Amino acid sequence: MKLLVLNHYVGSPALGMEYRPYYLAREWVRAGHQVMLLGADFSHVRTRQPEAGDQQLDGIAYRFYATPPYQGNGLGRVKNIWAYLRAVWADTPRLLREFRPDVVVASSTYPMDIWVARRIARRAGAKLVYEVHDLWPLSPIELSGMSRRHPFIVMCQAAEDYAYRHADRVISMLPKVHDYMASRGLALHKLQVVPNGITLDEWQAEPPPLREDVAAALDAAAAGGVVVGYAGSMGLPNALDTLLDAARLVQGERLRFVLVGGGHEQARLARRVADEGLANVTMLPPIPKAQIPAFLARCDIAYIGWQRVPIYRFGIAPNKLMDYMMARRVVLHSVEAGNDPVAEAGCGLTVAPQDPAAVAEGLRRLAALPAEQRREMGERGRAFVLANHTYPVLARRFLDAVAP
After folding, report:
1. Per the database record, which ranges form the Glycosyltransferase subfamily 4-like N-terminal domain (predicted)?
2. 96-99-105-111 Cα dihedral, nearest 10 degrees
């Protein structure tokens, strides 16, 4: 079977996020299928930008289209999106001539790629799949406060509704979307939930050594007490202001915080640490994904937080939480959502979101546990991921849902 995946932000372990298309594609290639991933040559979530053109990575064909760089979520990002969609639209004849897919997957976070994907699918006689990462336009409305009448939001809504009407299958990473999607016109027999996951080989091999500044920061933190780690994007949805507020509340106690990552909020958060004299917090630039296991192995508690927003009633599917659990770390989860993998697995403690006092108290409670009890909780988290969230399992579920 030939699968063509449109994912604007597609990455790889060498390029950075997004990782999911790469890991699914790698499993499909291993199973004997052909895969082509279509991405833009510029993405704000990657750590390294590829050259425009065709590449082969681990048997997966990539095609990166030339797009303008941008910063933030303004007009520059919109221009980047449209440049990508125009390029794929124009490339349709070549894609049909050179690849001619059996399945076309629209998977770019924003939904407007459904129009391009359907054009390709119809001309190829292929099955059309719409993969939902986040619910757009609800996510920018509820997370960023965008007006429902904003032209970009109106466009997203039209595309989402179109996708539910015309896709042959809808794959959702979020588990509690059935009522919402049905209200927007989806026949629920088309829907399959395939959450995020992890790749086993990254956790079976010896991880590469940590970057020197990260190793030194962890050494210093461990010397001062219990290490609270965070590894991932630093944007508004990650609620890291709440963690810094909690760090201020526990100054003078034995909790030490080491945060690694990049994103729109990284510079502002770093200024907060400096301006407020948070001596118990160290912030560092992002590390390669391959170093994440080594980083987490040096942490005692792993933190993940969310804003208190209604959008999470549809569930959450965070990559970093899967990494935390695979690393056998006890997790402090600050969330109110339709699902809670930490509670399901029994691998940590869940507290209210955007509540610094609750986060501080949760960290104190976990830090006070005997090390053996924290290890047992961490083992439960790893067992939960191995049973439900490895990419061989998820790739098969995806194929079972979309096979012609």
Report:
1. 16-197
2. -50
